[in-house]
Amino acid sequence: MALKNSSKPKKIGVVGVGSFGAAIANMLAEKNEVMVYARKEEIVEEINSVHTASGREINPSIQATFDPEELCRSCNILFFMVPSAAFVDVVRRFAPHLYPFHLIIHGTKGLALNLGPGESLETVQKLRRSQILTMSEVILQETVSVRVGCLAGPNISKELSLGQPAATVIASKYNEVILEGQRLLRSEKFQVYGNSDIIGVELSGVLKNIIAIAAGAIAGLGLGENAKGLLISRGMVEMVHLSKALGGSVQSVIGLAGVGDLVTTCNSVDSRNFTVGFRLAKGETLDQILSTMDEVAEGVNTVRIIDAFIKTAGIRAPITENLHRVLFEDLPIAEALHFLMKYPFSVDVDFV
Ligand SMILES: NC(=O)C1=CN([C@@H]2O[C@H](COP(=O)(O)OP(=O)(O)OC[C@H]3O[C@@H](n4cnc5c(N)ncnc54)[C@H](O)[C@@H]3O)[C@@H](O)[C@H]2O)C=CC1
Ligand SMILES: O=C(CO)COP(=O)(O)O
């Protein structure tokens, strides 16, 4: 049955109530009626009865459903807040219930692959740009929605949940999406900037996770602030080159969603990506770390994807390449660091 976009006021939908989804749903609920989607019936039950989701506090005004159709019928604006590994599946579950009037903003800082049947990263090994999708590209590919945006910036969910001041970027080709995001989320504690370069903003949030793993490793090795400053500035240059090669602008990388989030994530013990690097430097294996983390560290998969992209892009990205060898080829962190210190970086800023 075709759905009409009635003039009845709609709720705001949030898909995924993990760490970030719960924080954003609660912020949206300060000014709006909110409905959240969780795939597990017991989480829906927990939210509707005791107003928590896996123990995280949920504003009592928020209703939960595990029915994508109900969420799409009740809401014109949907925030997708699930990890990239589940993103394509989740979007496909929603696609039959989405109409062009739906406006979608996602908060996911990861990438997906666009490969042929039977192909995987292991079989192809090298990736072209057309084989990599940002989450907005997944939404455009899988649904009839066109008014798509992303939300990215220094937004550690624990700090947002404590009501600490922060800011974010809503990026979209459609000004209407930016204005709606600002209207829904802006408050005295939360500033919302706009940017029309959605690909550049998505890539900024994705690529900073690589550098955050490396920053965690530097901290885990007991190195100082000079080393961290070196990593952050070279990391930013690497992000600029990668983002340009993938279709983003330099401006977005040097803005809040790029440098802003890079500085935050490289300094926060609450960052899951930083934590992965820290624990690696303390001697744990990647398998040990991932099997004991409840939440997602997107940077691990991003390193694999970007390392495979570098092989076709004709650019060097020494931090990513060395981190790939540490994560997946057993290169000791101290050796990776030694290699980077010998790397012939000679020009400080070569992109402006
Ligand atoms: N936590 C943070 O501070 C921030 C996270 N992000 C990004 O937000 C995204 C989500 O991260 P978190 O909420 O932190 O992750 P999380 O690991 O805390 O939660 C992920 C949520 O997605 C749900 N999920 C997983 N697979 C699903 C599926 N197939 N169908 C439906 N739901 C599914 C899980 O049940 C869980 O509720 C990531 O891309 C992350 O990079 C962005 C900014 C801040
Ligand atoms: O993106 C984030 C903060 O802006 C969260 O970083 P982590 O995913 O590393 O926790």
From TrEMBL:
Residues 197-337 form the Glycerol-3-phosphate dehydrogenase NAD-dependent C-terminal domain. Its EC number is 1.1.1.94. Residues 11-176 form the Glycerol-3-phosphate dehydrogenase NAD-dependent N-terminal domain. It is found in: Cytoplasm. GO terms for biological process: carbohydrate metabolic process; glycerol-3-phosphate biosynthetic process; glycerol-3-phosphate catabolic process; glycerophospholipid metabolic process; phospholipid biosynthetic process. It catalyses: sn-glycerol 3-phosphate + NADP(+) = dihydroxyacetone phosphate + NADPH + H(+); sn-glycerol 3-phosphate + NAD(+) = dihydroxyacetone phosphate + NADH + H(+). The chain crosses the membrane at residues 12-29. Its main location: cytoplasm. NADPH binds at residues 19-20, 39-40, 109, 157, 272, 296, 298. It holds the Pfam family NAD_Gly3P_dh_N. InterPro entries: 6-PGluconate_DH-like_C_sf (IPR008927), 6PGD_dom2 (IPR013328), G3P_DH_NAD-dep (IPR006168), G3P_DH_NAD-dep_C (IPR006109), G3P_DH_NAD-dep_N (IPR011128), NAD(P)-bd_dom_sf (IPR036291). Keywords: Cytoplasm, Lipid biosynthesis, Lipid metabolism, Membrane, NAD, NADP, Nucleotide-binding, Oxidoreductase, Phospholipid biosynthesis, Phospholipid metabolism, Transmembrane, Transmembrane helix. Substrate binds at residues 109, 272-273. Pathway: Membrane lipid metabolism; glycerophospholipid metabolism. SUPFAM superfamilies: 6-phosphogluconate dehydrogenase C-terminal domain-like (SSF48179), NAD(P)-binding Rossmann-fold domains (SSF51735). The active site is at residue 208. The keyword Metal-binding does not apply. One of its GO terms (molecular function) is NAD binding. The keyword Transcription does not apply. One of its GO terms (cellular component) is cytosol. Belongs to the NAD-dependent glycerol-3-phosphate dehydrogenase family. Catalyzes the reduction of the glycolytic intermediate dihydroxyacetone phosphate (DHAP) to sn-glycerol 3-phosphate (G3P), the key precursor for phospholipid synthesis. This is Glycerol-3-phosphate dehydrogenase [NAD(P)+]. It comes from Algoriphagus lacus. The lineage of its organism: Bacteria, Pseudomonadati, Bacteroidota, Cytophagia, Cytophagales. The gene is gpsA.
